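Inputs:
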Amino acid sequence: MGKQGNHKQLAAVIGVGQTHHRAKREDVSMAGLCREAIDRALEDAGLTFDEIDAIVVGKAPDLFEGVMMPELYLAEALGAAGKPLLRVHTAGSVGGSTAIVAASLVQSGVHKRVLTVAYEKQSESNAMWALSVPVPFIMPVHAGAGGYFAPHVRSYIRRSGAPTHIGAMVAAKDRQNALKNPYAHLQNKDTTVESVLASQMLWDPIRYDETCPSSDGACALVISDEATASSVENPAWIHATAMRSEMTTAAERDQVNPQAGRDAAAYLYKQAGITDPFNEIDAVEMYVPFSWFEPMWLENLGFAEEGSGWKLTEGGVTAMDGALPVNCSGGVLSSNPIGASGMLRFAEAALQARGRAGDHQVDGVRRALGHAYGGGSQFFAMWIVGADKPA
Amino acid sequence: MRNVAVVGFAQRQMKEFDGSPTMVELLVPLFAELYEQTGFTRKDIGFWCSGSSDYLAGRSFSFVSAVDAIGALPPVNESHVEMDAAWALYEAWLKIQTGEIDTALVYGFGKSSAGTLRRTLALQLDPYTMTPLWPDTVSLAGLQARLGLEAGLWDEKAMAEVALRSLSDAERNEYAVRSGGSSIDDLLARPLYADPLRKHDCAPVTDGAAAIILAADDRASDASETPAWITGFAHNIDPLHLGARDLTRAPSAAAAGSAAGVEGVEVAELHAPFSHQELILREELGLGANVKINPSGGALTSNPMFSAGLIRIGEAAAAISRGDAGRTLGHATAGPLLQQNLVCVMEGAH
Amino acid sequence: MTTSETRTLSAPVHVGFDYTRSVGPVLGEFFSGLRDGRLVAGRLADGSVVLPPPEFDPTTHAQVTDFVDVGPAGTVQSWTWVPEPVPGQPFDHPFAFALILLDGATAPFLHALDVPRDQLEVGMRVGVRWAAERTGSITDIEAFVPEDAASAPLALAEGTVDPVTGIITPVNLDYVYAASPEESAFFRALEEGRIIGQRCPTCHKVYTPPRGACPVDGVPTTDEVELAHTGTVTTFCIVNVPFLGQKITPPYVSAYVLLDGADIAFLHLILGVDAAEVRMGMRVRAVWRPEEEWGTTVENISHFEPTGEPDAEFDTYKQHL
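Outputs:
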């Protein structure tokens, strides 16, 4: 047997599908929601269910829908009966982790054509409730995810000296980008920096318009081996994948610029042979559920020096026509079916690399980065996909 | 394919764990045992993967705190499945096959006693047409058992034989929460509980955790003098809907067994939470009378949710390490009525 | 709550929510049928007739569109006795679940049987006993009963002809939550008006609440450390948003407080000062509730309030952000 590194098979995204994301998709069941994304992904890949070897399902906490391991009941509707099925759950990063697990099925040489789907039907319950089931002996002080992340955003602002309108700039940019994406949940053409700044302060320093919506939605990918991918038009070749985790809280843990994110990015670039990510990556889909996370992750991912990510945002560098377009799809700020949100980032990166992002396509993308995070900024998943086979 | 082996295995099983459902308290000594067995330290582990369920603990993200047991700074390459940790082992095995890593530590945990397990598991059913009736696990198994009894596929005596052998073998398993052989007549004289099932036909509610270290090639040989080399590893799923398959069969078990290659195994550790389910599995996997089944006592004597499948693989590997067998099989099941099945076949020196 | 003699503290937790499920077109046919007193099955590509209809055909994977009424009577294929029903099941007294092959169907259907145990047998003919009020849910069928005891569904009230598009499914679960031994020691100390932490034997950091394992080193924390009731606000958030289950009226300040002597900040409330006055670096002290209200809970500390000392220098707490 050979040495480490000699075994990895090439893999590529050859099909992408997603639902129209909405606050309530009252027209479909959970199975119907997943199938809307899956059917589009299979059609895009030019494959049928019978040609799929294995299925990987991702979803955030089961309490959201009140179904324990829903992939069991969904097996038949997802075309998984008689096949291997895995269910991944890594908190908010799950959509990204799920895509990476699906990729590893192919990269291991064990499977050739893998279907992966991630979804959330948030309208079945209330995410704030599901995340805040009281713990005895503890006083409930947080108020949902916004309450959790707001103090860390305040820390970022203090550490970086960023002007307070940066968050509003990100929100206005992503909402305007969403107008170019027919699948995006929020379609508010009137959103401007001024309107975001005028919206209610919910979890000071986070305003209403700087938060993500709660969405029903699903995303599906078909990931194939080299032979299958070589026979289709414009596959997005997987150049690198990385997952890193750390604990939620620890003494002196950096919650603003977590080491797990930095380590994952470093490993990712090493695999992809990238030494200058800012200049070598053409489009970025990062997980920004609260607007301030754009500058924070720009630093964490090595696109900017620590403390200066906000300058890229302020200078328009992350706009669709900027040097490093970020979240051209509208991002999590415009659509947030939690379990699917990470996979949507990975899927949008693949669409950019394939030149198939429609009105929100960035010209000439050769390599794109998809990113997701979860828990208390502690679980990270990311990949780089490219128009060309990896060198 | 790379040669990958189970090189360490540790477990805890108990009737009721008096502690936090995060199980950090159990996982820390399990990991220490594995380091002791393999000579590895935390830094030698290339990938961590766990299996657990939020609904056992009754709260979202219940797996997150378990990461504390690792000591995850510097950060670790880590993943989690909302499945029995046997499937986490599969994910880790794939990851090793990509060549990206050489070693993995896989763990599963669950505190089943925190809620009413057989009722909680009704949430695994079709949420629209089944869960609102709250069909509990034992009732569903009773329906399955009677189908086989009526069809003449098995009888009460065959079910009692499974229970008797399990309870007798469990006397030698320090982790079993139920043990003690008697006789077929004694077992059949006990009252019916969920007619046609008696209590000894049903796995006991069990809390616990387990962990396995996988290593590839030379790393495996370095870590263990008796690695259990994985020669076949596969899993498969059937439809959940009761009308969609013959419930006296488990086609996904047959498919997984066939893909993993079960010929010639001497010992099979089958994850059968109900006595008649062992009979179904033996049939589907084609295990003849010469195959020793569940020397550990199996799931009828302790069945910690989300690690019981991993424990079957650990026990099958341990049979090789002890020199009891040269080729063994570990099996895991998940979902209602043997819906999902996984088979891992291992061998000694190659 | 348990007494202090047990190893760990535990307390009941109820997890309950009424889930609103949109059912989609196929299950909508099934539920609309139940509401109308009919059993609507799906006819699949291979000719089988299945109740409830699967949403997607297992052979063609296409959405099922061919519906056919089956029953209302059928034959018991299998049954099991439920000696100790759990909450939510169709009866709170012993009963049977059964697989019933309805006339015209090719696969069995799961529901309850209301038949005395000594009359249960495979092959018996049964029919539906409809619920008094039907809303379009699986519980519109109260149970199956011997065929001669079954009755026709009552006519619907006027005006209820819209297709069923959604159902409400209450999920109520009860758990006993146990704190770890280390957390239990922390909560018990609070009952005595003390705040304790534990030091990691490897990195020597002081954790409060103490942990089952130092999250950096993966080893149990050991030495108990008594902590001051004063500390520094590292960072905070002003909560203006109301949410389900909230106990404190907004706006309020939720802050990370680094207690003097601890190496990890602790989340609590800052009151006794205008929210706009709260600052990173502000020095604060714990305000305890009256001693007679103390229990084994963090709620013994009502909140933190400013001490009036000068703010801590940023450099003294910046590594805790």
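Remarks. The longest strand of chain C covers residues 10-22. The longest helix of chain C spans residues 24-35.
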